[in-house]
Amino acid sequence: MIDINTAKGNIEAIGFMDIDIDVNLDLFAEIEKIKKEKNAIVLAHYYQEPDIQDVADFIGDSLGLAQQAEKTKADIIVFAGVHFMAETAKILNPNKKVLLPDLKAGCSLSDSAPPDLFKLFKDKHPDHLVITYINCSAGMKALSDIICTSSNAEKIIETLPIDQKIIFAPDKNLGAYLNKKTGRQMILWNGACMVHEIFSLEKIIKLKIRHPKAKVIAHPECEEVVLRIADYIGSTTGLLKFSIESEADEFIVVTETGILHQMQISSPNKTFITAPPNNSCACNDCPHMKLNTLEKLYLCMQYETPEIIMSDSLLIAAKKPIQRMLAISKQYGL
Ligand code: 13P
Ligand code: SF4
After folding, report:
1. Which of 136, 137, 194, 259 should be mutated for ligand 2, with most atoms under 8 A from CB?
2. pTM more than 0.90
3. Which of 52, 81, 103, 257 has the fewest C-beta atoms under 10 angstroms from its C-beta?
């Protein structure tokens, strides 16, 4: 019997909040020093704050990060992202130390699919294959046949026979987008990302009127009404590539704001406008991703905690569907 409820460590026990860092310390230099001393690698998602992106060895989308985690020769993987991403790195590297600067950096989408409830749902559809978006817990992965990300989901679905019945979890928006793209009728779990559901269609349309030449570029976790007006839909890496390769000079970016850092570095003469949320707060910043800070990254590398710890049975069960995803991605050069 696999424990599908992922064990979380105890960050409070470490007392990070009580450790004062000398304000004169050059954290960028210190982090570089620790990387060399400990043979550590820093993997960062595009939604991390700019300082963290600037010290990372690799910045990427969920697929790119999983691929880097799979091939790294480092002894310690420091994951500047959210819990499910660090967990994926651990599943691919059970014998390595995987650190997450703030263990509370979760994900609303992942939380929308508790494994015990999903198991009941899955049991009601025994003839269905389960494709699960990587934004889920290890427990969910253990219940899945294939994992996917926003950059390989369409290709993964296309490799399956057209009459194959499929459950897609946990993101209903990505699932609906994929149903439309592939012509399938996958059964969708009713989960969503709190950041990508917050964008205001009305405000985006007003922005587009004020910037008629701007291309609207959106992540497929957004709602269908928003995706309908997008000029390009893709993963964070896809959005970044599109902004580099497009001849347009202006972009309305409908995803988390962190991606703008690399867009601006890659295309300093182009203008990037963040799509506004349907209220006046900065809800297009992911509160989970932004829990990580440069200070916490430094402390976590210095003290080698908090660490991702999982049971062997969960590690083994969650690995198979991830490996299947990585193999298909390799086959199609993704
Ligand atoms: P990708 O970077 O894989 O597009 O995922 C976006 C996201 O929401 C990660 O939490
Ligand atoms: Fe989860 Fe959404 Fe934050 Fe990504 S942006 S980590 S899907 S809550």
Report:
1. 194
2. yes
3. 257
